[in-house]
Design a protein that fits this description.
Blueprint (H helix, E strand, L loop, with lengths): L6 H9 L3 H25 L6 E4 L2 E4 L5 H20 L3 E5 L3 E3 L4 E2 L3 E5 H5 L7 E2 L4 E5 L5 H5 L1 H8 L4 E6 L4 E7 L4 E7 L3 E3 L7 E3 L6 H14 L2
Parallel strand pairs: 4-7, 8-9
Antiparallel strand pairs: 1-2, 3-6, 4-5, 6-8, 9-10, 10-11, 12-13
């Protein structure tokens, strides 16, 4: 894995006469975080949607109906297409992804066929996915566009979608050597996945239960 390292940040620390003290403080902080992370793994339950971010345990509030409908539609679309074409595994809500420092539970994530073969039936900590989709809410928008965006980018998650349920807009980012490029931001037209081969469908489908049902029927007919 190639990390997108902020060389300027490292340079700023090393240029400081306090560099040894700062590095020791960082080392101690990360060791403390590591212990808290172990506690997080031991204490978090299947009933909770929880994440570990920069040493803090984040417990999420129950989702609103609009969020649930959109995540359900996306999961049905992706899961049907992936299963019918034998492309891998699609996870929803409670799939805990382990990054270098943090652990996230994305709304939707996709693992390609090669990664899926390595997953066990009792898997609880998952590797880096190929596609992550986050649905914005008032409580998560800052993290979805901030720390998560940065972490997904640095760990070269191939594709990242940010879905705005109010504006009914999808932003699609493609990872190019550890740097995200915005390739689509729209409420209309088609979205063509980069990580899921040949997956293409109208954006409006995401926000319409009936259109989702019709699309799934189309996928099933085409796979016969």
């Amino acid at each position: 894995m190639t990390m997108n390292i902020d060389k300027q940040l490292i340079s700023n620390i090393l240029d400081s006469p306090r560099a040894p003290i700062l590095l020791e403080e960082i080392k101690n902080k990360l060791e403390e975080e590591s212990k808290k992370r172990v506690d997080f793994y031991n204490e978090v339950t299947e009933q909770e949607k929880a994440e570990f971010i920069n040493g803090e345990i984040i417990i999420h509030s129950p989702v609103k109906k609009i969020h649930n409908e959109i995540s359900g539609n996306l999961y049905k679309i992706l899961d049907t297409f992936v299963i019918e074409n034998n492309l891998g595994f699609v996870g929803i809500e409670k799939v805990l992804i382990r990054f270098t420092r943090n652990d996230y539970e994305p709304d939707i994530c996709f693992f390609n066929k090669e990664k899926t073969r390595k997953l066990k039936k009792d898997q609880t900590l998952f590797p880096i996915p190929d596609l992550i989709i986050e649905i914005l809410s008032k409580g998560t928008a800052k993290r979805d566009r901030g720390i998560k965006f940065e972490d997904y980018e640095a760990h070269e998650v191939k594709e990242y979608w940010i879905v705005d349920p109010i504006k009914k807009v999808v932003e699609q980012y493609q990872n190019n050597k550890g740097k995200y490029e915005l390739i689509l931001k729209s409420s209309s037209g088609e979205i063509n996945s980069i990580a899921i081969n040949n997956l293409s469908f109208p954006i409006k489908t995401i926000f319409d239960n009936k259109k989702t049902h019709q699309l799934i029927k189309k996928f099933l007919l085409e796979s016969k």
